[in-house]
Specification:
9 strands; about 200 residues
Length: about 200
Amino acid sequence: MQNKLNIIGGNWRSRKISFEDADGLRPTPARVRETLFNWLQYDILGSHCLDLYAGSGALSFEAASRGAKSVIQVENNPIACRSLKTNALSLGAEQVKIVQSDVFRYLASDAQAFDIVFIDPPFNLNLAAQTCQWLEDKGWLASYAKIYVETERTNVDTQGVFQLQEIPENWRLLKQKTAGEVMYHLFERVAKANTQ
């Protein structure tokens, strides 16, 4: 089945992207995307973005629409990759590059520093914390990179505080909200002083 969603801001505002049903594919809802890009409004223009577990590409096409200089979408599912390529062609998104790969295989390759990273892994696989740690440990982040992480609400303690045990210690939580069963967070990486 084909699904469609609208890009909500920027050069491609109101343009539709389409995607096939694929296992674990769960596009970020429009109201969450709108909140996220309000948070990032001063960071997107001219940025280099990495979309891990790209899925429908909703987050990274939105970033490209709003002026990101380059976007890499990493997605393992061949059906989702085909849709990403079709959408990039129909939008004329020359700044978007699609990489069909397992995220950890990709992160084990030669690193380049990104300004903004989107992490929206399939739920129930507990991939978010490990992905965050690999980004930090393997040198994929610019000094003050912003990292968006979307998870299930089950990662919350009884006081409603987000529990992602392995977030790198030099990341600070800037924003956090919930929408239904989804919890979403924006972190900023603070560059470590005199790292050896």
